[in-house]
Write a structure and sequence with these properties.
Blueprint (H helix, E strand, L loop, with lengths): L15 E5 L2 E4 L34 H4 L2 H6 L1 H34 L2 H50 L13 H43 L1 H8 L1 H37 L3 H6 L3 H52 L5 H42 L21 E8 L9 E8 L4 E5 L6 H8 L7 E6 L2 E2 L5 H7 E4 L10 H5 L10 H10 L3 H6 L17 H14 L4 E5 L7 H14 L4 E6 L2 H4 L5 E4 L1 E2 L4 E2 H8 L13
Parallel strand pairs: 5-10, 5-11, 8-9, 9-10
Antiparallel strand pairs: 1-2, 3-4, 3-6, 6-7, 12-13
Helix pairs in contact: 3-4, 3-5, 3-10, 4-5, 4-10, 5-6, 5-7, 5-10, 6-9, 7-9, 7-10, 9-10, 14-16
The structure holds adenosine-5'-triphosphate.
Main location: membrane
Protein name: ABC transporter B family member 29, chloroplastic
Organism: Platanthera guangdongensis
Length: 635
Amino acid sequence: MAQLLFRPPPIRPTSSIPFAKNLTISSSIMPSSFPLPFLSSSSLFRLLPLVPPFHSPLLSSSFSQLKPYLQSEWEPILKGWICSAVSVFCLSVAVPKAGQLPSILTTVGYDKAVSEGLTLATLVCARSAANYLQHVFLWEAALKASFSIRTYVFGRVLERDLGFFEGNRGMDAGDVAHRLTSETSDVADMLFSLLNTVVPNALQFLVMSTQMVVLSPPLSLISAMGIPCLLIVIGHLGERLRGISRRAQVTAAKLSSHLNEVLPLMLVVKANNGEMNEHLHFQRLACEDLIARLEKKKMKAFIPQIVQFIYIGGVIALCAGSLIASKGSMDASKFLSFTMSLALLIGPVQGMGKAFNELKEGEPAIERLFDLAKFDYEVTESPNALDVCYATGDIKFSDVTFRYGDNMPLILNGLNLHIRSGERVALIGGSGGGKTTIVKLLLRLYDPLYGQILLDNHNIQEATLKSLRDHIVLVPQDTMLFSGTVSENIGYKEASDKLDMDCVENAAKISNADEFIRELPHGYQTSIGPRGSLLSGGQRQRIAIARALYQKSSILVLDEATSALDNKSELLVREALERVMADHTRYCVARTLSKVQNKCRWFLVVKDRIKNKTLLDLFAETGDGLALGSGSGKP
Ligand SMILES: Nc1ncnc2c1ncn2[C@@H]1O[C@H](COP(=O)(O)OP(=O)(O)OP(=O)(O)O)[C@@H](O)[C@H]1O
């Protein structure tokens, strides 16, 4: 029975995800420690990271995190490299032919020269076609690998504890979004650049340098002397580029975070005449981004120039010197072929420099992306956790003490609370008193520091998280809707193609939302805009309540969930909730008594943590009309 249900199982590499019209993606959505059984059929690609360019000491450990994703895309990579081999082969045949063409024309005759010319043209066309296919296959591999990385990292982000998303340790949503979008695209560009450059260029380098050695060993040796010097310069500049790229990524992420924060709050900005301030704030962040990006672009432009300068300058000087020294011992056609090979060798050398550039530029993105996936769970599920199949809704908080982090004040200190099945309980307290925190503890979004929480006399820490949360449904304080249709929002629990429309409509009727939904242009299929912005606050709340009802859980938590309803709607919703939840525990969080009077039989008074007084005392002191008599039970 014990099952680990909550943690979504990693998608195994054998599964196929529809990717595009005629494409499937073999997903390697797992960390590098996962086995890769499918590779046994192509053990060649287990060795991918051992291919010289991929285990170069110049490549950092962050690159090693990409290995499994590259390995899983062995097929398009292999096809791309075969195309690149074809392209290099065409070139290697074409170069000597091109060198011999002038002498054929003068010595053998016009006809032979034409046929050689045609062969040459065919080789050039074949090379272009092979180049095109090489790009297509290698882009496919790079994009699919980045797709797998992106989905794997997002899956891990979803698994992270709530503490990662809120509070003082919380990560900015805009930053996360930037990493998963823009920075993942940088990783795809980098992967393509590496795949497209390293092996094809290495092949071209090998073939051209072999031709040079065959044509003239001494001149080849002289030409090769430029390479070590080049590597030292590239290595040094690459490290600088890496630092600059990291800074640029951070400034871009800040910009994205800021936009993510401001745009949804446009109402507040406009109502407070905040446009000017926001504009200035944006300008400052955009300016930081501009400086960082410009610095990066300058460095990126500088590296190939320096590579070209050192290499071409050095090699030409050395070749010229040795030609003078050889006093014309080399014939003209050989010299032509040699210089052509040399010219075609410079391309791969530059290409490798460029790929190294891309790698150093992409490395911070890889690190930042995989940082999102590295964490230890704070709320852990016991290996023997049981599924809660049925819950009557009896809840006990026993000596529960909690704070949000080390060195932070206690929010709850030895809280004892017993809510019996079927009871309706209201938590009343001043702002910041800890009411929502109690709900978060009940949902195990955080664990208490001390004490325990029991559901039907079972410690909730012994239940699987999924089954526990299935039994508790929360209508949060801030109504949170997603862009999508009304029905998708109400049936959020299900995939949109599995929605039970009868249940959706029933939930909407109970929450008094059916009437206004039917008046929308497309009824239940109306898109409600970003975060439900097409609806009024009260309409959003009714949809949120309908969403909670759709889940049919034993415990319903309303966190000031009816605050935006007018009196008539609230009355209707309340009556409906009375009916539906008659046999269920209901747990109400409200800031003022008036919100819960007549709704609940019992009131729970939360101790105010700041003044160390019960709210009962506080209300009595402030004369806020603590009409506890309206509850028929005891406080
Ligand atoms: N994620 C968090 N990290 C750190 N502190 C937090 C976090 N969430 C809430 N707090 C703090 O815990 C205290 C209790 O917050 P909680 O949201 O439980 O109050 P509440 O009683 O629901 O308030 P309100 O009625 O205003 O919604 C507050 O002082 C708040 O600042």
